[in-house]
Amino acid sequence: MGRTIGIFDSGVGGLSVLHHIRAILPDANLIYVADSGHVPYGDKSPAYIEARSLALTRFLLSQGAEAIVIACNTATAAAAHTLRVKFGKLPIVAMEPAVKPAVAATRSGVVGVLATVGTLESARFAALLEKYAGKVKIVTQGCPGLVDVVERGDLHSTEARRLIERYTEPLLKQNADTLILGCTHYPFLAPLIRDVVGEGIALVDTGAAVARELKRRVDVELPSRAIAGVTGTEIFFTSGDAEQATKIMSLLWGVAVEVKPLPQEFI
Length: 267
Ligand code: DGL
Known about the structure:
alpha/beta; Rossmann fold; 2 domains; six-stranded parallel beta sheet; four-stranded parallel beta sheet; 11 helices; 17% strand; globular; binds D-glutamic acid
């Protein structure tokens, strides 16, 4: 039996992190919950997001999860602390905008952050800047609507492009040469963002770093019981429309998957 990891996000964005997790932990059994019935988190109150994060974590534990990944910057800002206090020894890996690597990478001395309003307004984000920005100027841009286009699986439309143009332009005008994709939905838009901003701008996110941190934690705290060569399973749930989620998550995961409805008591 491989280790069982529970992963959640406000919707389908966390699949961008799941790709990295699957690559680094081939034997782990992965249970993913998209809280698409409550998406977007970006304009909800911290208390609302905390309540959802608690419900989703409880569900994942009921399914046998031995570690949790909060594959959502907004939920990390609102709920990581509470989850860690509440669930004591449970390994909980959370994610934050990639300020540290972006600060190391910039040559212009200006880093742009694309994220949800919830993330940008959080105390946790302020603390992150305090810790890592140093002399680098950080310019931020909330991106209402961008999560919704990914939720619809709309990665190439004119509407998506217009939003990206509107949100990246002020950052580039201020001379940012490095853009942080500070929401797990945005890596799915990276090809379109690249097309809009051009080759000279670095795009950074934390999906790979979070997967590495998860592996480091579980290798110590949940030593593998896997048999070499055995591949782990993936199970998908949504609090939204299961049929729609099956279509979109198959597209974003890259193979056809069946998404099950989240049991009513966790919705
Ligand atoms: N994927 C999310 C994040 O990383 C949540 C976005 C939202 O639901 O607004 O921030």
